[in-house]
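Take a look at the protein record below and flag anything odd:
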Amino acid sequence: MLSSIMSFEDRGKWGKSNYRGNCSGYIIKGLLDHYQPKHFLEVFAGGGTGFDVAKELGYKNSTHLDLNPKYGGWNALTDEVPEGSDFVFLHPPYHNIIQYSGKMWGQPHPDDLSRCKTYDEFIKKLDLIHSKVYSSLRNGGRMAILIGDVRKKGEYFSIQRDMAWIGQLDAHIIKAQHNCVSDNRRYAGKFIPIQHEHLLVFKKGNLWIVPVAVTKKASQDLRHSLKVTWRDLVQASLEELGGSATLENLYAVIDGTAKAKKNNFWREKVRQTLQIGKEFKPVSRGHWTLSNGAQMVA
């Protein structure tokens, strides 16, 4: 039975075990057993897992598409979905973590998602494919997407958060990852390895109206915010000045902030904040420093 958490240490007998990024056949089998679709369509067929599972379950009319010439060289960006289905499974590349064309098969292909030059390009193209596949669904059908988070050069990218959610969310399942290449690596510092994936299932519940949820990214300068506290403002100003500064230097940083503009006595407020804040320590008259650690509070 399906639940909101999946974990398969043994990937199963389906597909090519040496095809990097190939998902466990237990995932596809579990989805097909649960939803019992009349027609199964797989996009990014890759290592053949979906094909093998469908064959074992007795599907006579399943369709498996991939840019790999072995599966007909179907281009998810430019080619039309050949037929409607009541269940589609997609397991796209996780940006360029594993490159497929030119590495796993054939020659490098410009429309291979694993060869997108930037993460933004990857998300844009992924959204285009998801929209196309969702539109091809029969009403009441499901689109299941298995996707993972990635970390590049110390920055964390959550693909499931950044991509558009197209359709009515029917299930969000967390899948544990096992036997990854990265499992054998040792990481320095405070590094938390990624050992999970997201399985998102969207339902088509209306013939014409498509629910779309998009994450909106924005940046806010705390210096322009009235919600920031005086303590936070003074702390950030001291950090900007290297952790130690004179009052005059602090005034120069805080002058012009939204909080200062709203308070005619903001300099007095800065001094009061320094005097009552446990993390602020006087070095000498008119000179303050930021302590290294917080104080224990009973």
Observations:
- Confidence is low (pLDDT under 50) at residues 294-298.
- The two ends are 48 Å apart (CA to CA).
- The helical segments are 25-35, 49-57, 119-136, 159-162, 230-240, 247-254, 258-261, 266-276.
